[in-house]
Amino acid sequence: MSSSVGKTDGSREAVNRRRAEALEKHVAELERSAGGDLAKAERQAAGTVVLGSSLPVLLCGLIVVLVSIFMPHSGAVRGYDVLFFSDVAQTYVTTLPERVYAWLALVGGVMMTLGTVVSRSSLVLWINWILTGIGWVYAVLAIGMRQSRPPTEPGDGPSFGLVMGAVGMVVIFIALSARLLRRGAVQKAIAEKRRAEAGKDEESRAAQLVLRTGLAPRDDVDLVDDRRDKVRARRRRTDRPSDESGPGSAVDPEGPTEN
Questions:
Q1: Is 107 inside a domain boundary?
Q2: Residue whose C-alpha is closest to residue 122's, from 51, 34, 38
Q3: Which backbone phi and psi does 197 adopt, to 5 degrees?
Q4: Residue 258 domain flag
Q5: What is the pTM for the complete model shown?
Q6: I need a labelling partner for 97 at 20 to 30 A (CA). Which of 123, 133, 251, 258 fits?
């Protein structure tokens, strides 16, 4: 029993060691491609999404939304009837929120989710997150519209296809939110490396000072208190005679002589 536990612990340590080595290698490649600029390397890492455990959840949500398009939306109306606003959808008075939801389910729930899984691009993921967020709101609105329709209108309430699509959109939205609201392992490793190298040189310390306090660095200047010297100089100027006589301006005190 103890030997099996030891083997399990050893295999876990080996797996963690291989993951750490792969992470360090990837960080080094990003730093090399960024020319040694860790900030640029972190931005490059942020442009790529590592789905990890969210990938199966995304695929399940995608399949549910895709299947819901072919399921009954409301009575005899199916999801693709609402999508293309067919004669059946017009006959049973399909509302505008239902049509908006159907297109958001196709574009955001199916196409953009597939694009996120294939491209692993953060830009595609952001667009997918926005569309699915709006989509599940319209799905709830569509269910409410079907339930609150007047009895004089033809058609039935929401069917399981509409409910399936709403659940699938919510699942995709939650899975995407879990990826967006936290940084990946590569970004964390680069950020930790940036913090470690922040205080190594004067330029990095100045940048950290600006980020933390918002104050630009300035050179230290020795302040000299010369106020007393200035006061003495001002007194000398005031005590100095205002009129200075020249050599040819002397006046005879006895006045002019008469011949």
A1: yes
A2: 51
A3: -95, 5
A4: no
A5: 0.63
A6: 123
Residue 78's contacts (CB-CB under 8 Å, 6 or more residues apart) are: 69, 70, 71, 72, 88, 161
pLDDT in tens, 114-135: 999 998 888 899 999 999 999 9
How far is residue 243's CA from residue 253's CA, in Å, rounded to a whole number?
Answer: 19
Contacts of 58 (CB under 8 A, 6+ apart): 51, 113, 116, 117, 172, 175, 176
Handedness of CA 229, 233, 235, 239 (dihedral sign): positive
Overall number of domains in the chain: 2
Whether the pLDDT of residue 39 is over 70: the answer is no
Statement to judge: residues 155 and 190 lie in one domain: no
Tokens describing residue 216: 């630009």
Using CA atoms, how far apart are residues 156 and 77, in angstroms rounded to an integer?
9
CA distance 93 to 153: 7
Same domain (yes/no): 192, 176: no
Residue whose C-alpha is closest to residue 80's, from 57, 53, 98:
98
Q: How confident is the model at residue 253 (pLDDT cuts 50, 70, 90)?
A: very low
Dihedral pair phi/psi, residue 18, rounded to 5°: -65, -35
